[in-house]
Amino acid sequence: MTARSETYDESLAKAHEHVRRWLSSIDDRPIGPRVTAGELLASVGGPLPDGGLDPAGVVDELAAKADPGLMAIASGRFFGWVMGGTLPAGLAADWLVSGWDQNAGMRYSTPATAALEEAAASWLLELLRLPPTADVGFVTGATMANFTCLAAARHAALATAGWDVERDGLTGAPQVHVLVGAERHDTIDLALRYLGLGQPSPVAADEEGRIRVDALAEALAAIPDGAPIVLCLQAGNVHSGAFDPFAEAVRLAHARGAWVHVDGAFGLWAAATPALSHLVEGLAVADSWTTDAHKTLNVPYDCGLAIVADSASMRAAMGVHASYLVPDETGPGDPYEKVPELSRRARGVPVWAVLRSLGRRGVVDLVDGLTTNARAIAAGLAEIDGVEVLNDVVYTQICVSFGSDERTREVTARLIADGTTWMSGSRWHDRDVLRISVSNWSTDAEDVRLSVDAVRAAVSA
């Protein structure tokens, strides 16, 4: 009789072989995909075959057909969006998570994954210098992290006004006044839409995208006394990498009884390193924070972090109870009480593995290294005739222009077609830009040199 484990052997061996081949190809292959989704669909789609294929054959076919449509996001020369690579410990741990196949929602039934996530959460709070009593939920990414934190904010803001939103919904509820910086990330608006809070009120930002304290004071003064208020700040502007002036903004908002949420999808990690701690001064006294582990920390997709200082508000907004969900009476509550999902994979396990692999010093070196590489790229680009660096490079983001919008789009298209590096086009301050996000742990001085040279070639072509 064949042992159950043996039925996986050949397909897992094939997967291991193909992943190793993929990883070994990243340094030499073009960064961008070589086919479109429509072209690939012709190969992988069509009517479902009547007969099946053995698992190892499926893995072989999958790897071969997908290969030309893969983006080399793990490359040290991928700067297209804020996407980290995958550190070795994180990748291996993610394989274990798939193999273990645990539903990480309940502490009683899956204690191993619950304990690992709780340990990882404690390490994260320590690294990011956030309150040690805060609750941490592991979600898909910054969108759902913002959703989770702002659900807690909605609960608390309306509860202060005497309204039970979980019981009574939003019909007839007092208006929640949501203030945001004019250059917040769109996922803030998306989360507010999901929560039924509508469009927020934008507050003017400065030339780097930081919320202006004087404009915030005026916006707060215009809101009636006693009205529920939520203020959304950001750690890391998606174009400039700039950080809001947290100390003064949080003080003003808290004086009005507002809940302050910080969207730190990639920038919250600045708190982990002494060299950048000045960027986040005052951030720790906010009420909630979001970040992505699959960005700056370089764990596999998908892993966002929703962090809320007031555990009761988080669990009131997210929690659910049913007789078949056996609670763990010995611990701090179940993981599913802190996130939108009852069922999910153990996203926090790769976080534990990466933090255990790096240690505190390794995380500091990782974040400092990303910033150092960003400054090196910006310095190299500034030496090229016709290139203008548009932002103050304080973190990992760079925006450049090549003159006119048409010229910028033209150079960007040439750069992507070349394949040496991947930097994406965007629009900032009413002009087309090339946006560069330095997020990968493996980027080194040679990657920086090759990428700058690729831009130089695209400019002079």
UniProtKB/TrEMBL annotation:
The modification N6-(pyridoxal phosphate)lysine is found at K295. Its cofactor is pyridoxal 5'-phosphate. It comes from the Bacteria. GO terms for biological process: carboxylic acid metabolic process. InterPro entries: Aromatic_deC, PyrdxlP-dep_de-COase, PyrdxlP-dep_Trfase, PyrdxlP-dep_Trfase_major, PyrdxlP-dep_Trfase_small. It holds the Pfam family Pyridoxal_deC. Keywords: Aminotransferase, Decarboxylase, Lyase, Pyridoxal phosphate, Transferase. The keyword Transferase applies. GO terms for molecular function: aromatic-L-amino-acid decarboxylase activity; pyridoxal phosphate binding; transaminase activity. Belongs to the group II decarboxylase family. This is Aspartate aminotransferase family protein. The lineage of its organism: Bacteria, Bacillati, Actinomycetota, Actinomycetes, Propionibacteriales.
